[in-house]
Amino acid sequence: MSFDLVAVGSGPAGQRAAVQAAKLGKRAAVIERANLGGVSTNFGTVPSKTLRAAIVELTGRAATAQGLNARINHSVTIDDLRARTRQVIEHEREVIRDQLLRNGVTIIEGDASFAEPNSLEVRSDAGTSRVAADRIVIAVGTVPARPPGVEFDEKTVLDSDGLLRIAKLPGTLTVVGAGVIGLEYASMAAALGVHVTLVEKRPRLLDFVDDEMVEALQYHLRGLGLSLRLGEEVDAVRRSPQGVMTHLRSGKRIPSQVVLYAAGRQGATATLNLEAAGLEADSRGRIEVGPDYRTSQPHIFAAGDVIGFPSLAATSMEQGRLAALTAFDRPAKSMPNLLPYGIYTVPEISFVGLTERELTESAVPYVVGFGRFRELVRGGIAGDRTGVLKLLIHTDTRRVLGVHVFGTAATELVHLGQTVMAGDLTVDYLVEAVFNVPTFTDAYKVAALDAANRLNEIDDLPVAPGV
Description:
Blueprint: E1 2-8, H1 12-23, E2 28-32, H2 38-42, H3 45-59, H4 78-102, E3 106-109, E4 111-116, E5 119-124, E6 127-138, E7 142-144, E8 157-159, E9 172-176, H5 180-191, E10 195-200, H6 211-223, E11 227-230, E12 234-240, E13 243-248, E14 253-256, E15 258-261, E16 265-267, E17 300-302, H7 313-327, E18 341-343, E19 349-353, H8 356-361, E20 366-372, H9 377-382, E21 388-394, E22 400-406, H10 410-422, H11 427-432, H12 442-460
């Protein structure tokens, strides 16, 4: 079999690369070892976000913890959550299959590894075959990192891919690692009434997120009953018939029924035989690429989680599309500086643009405007009076530099700010715009008016001589 472009992996990056190539009239294929959709559909984005939605729906819990502890439905079982998640996963697989076939993309099932720089060997139950390609996009995604010395048994000591396979909800849970995945699962478990202890070796959470949003998240995680152990490292995890004991280097011991390791992920490149293609991966299985997603081999590209941060489904989709366009020397336009970030904790966090810390370090003058959900009718209707939308506005140009949202629908709300920034509009657009009421979108109006008041105060204040 011979193709113009082959994507190794059918996750968001591989899908988009293959479909984009097909839309250019090229012969395209994807190679997938297991179920279509890759990690994103089967273990990551789709199941985790479905799980979150199911928890909120089944427990009757709104976006915040305040005053809602008595409303938790303790009859919710792991089977309830697993059933809902399975439905969504199966539907998404069918959508992906239909999209690929509709665009004329060939689906090849099996494990791929390089035989030569332009040739892949594919092993399946049906045997071994060779696939030749003029251009190749490596989009194999990641697998959970498993620290040496930790005995994973898929029952009491799990990684993030194995969480949904547990037999029943634990009463106590220790989560090791407070990255995005660890925080999401820790907050979901806490929302179900599980007593969660979160251990993180760094002194603060999510150092790429605005400080105020992180502070708000920590406050509400504690409101969910979650215990934070920041600046702590795990020394050992020991199982016993009674449960699991997590030993910290500080001497603390944390007993729990289950331990979830969410200590990062690494590229799933171990079986690709990259050496045959003249490539290599780093110590975490990641492949280095240039700004056009091209590897050191001009005809081989890599996209998605396998190239590292930000490792988000949305960014992976765009990377795959751009890689395919570049591969065929087509114009590839995007807005890499305006990619939105979504963190599906309880409550959600989402942002686009710069943080206050980044602006301060760059000596950029700015003002802040807040749209608090307690000021919105929609906030009262939804039971979320603690959410907030924050705008960072350049003092001189009045352009929007950053949008940060905490609370219900944060990952939806951020896109309006993204559009305003992409259009190079000023805060005055948001002041003058009319938004439906009652909606959470009206928080933009409130925040814009707040920021405009700050700007007017600066403009009206006389500057002292010599300043």
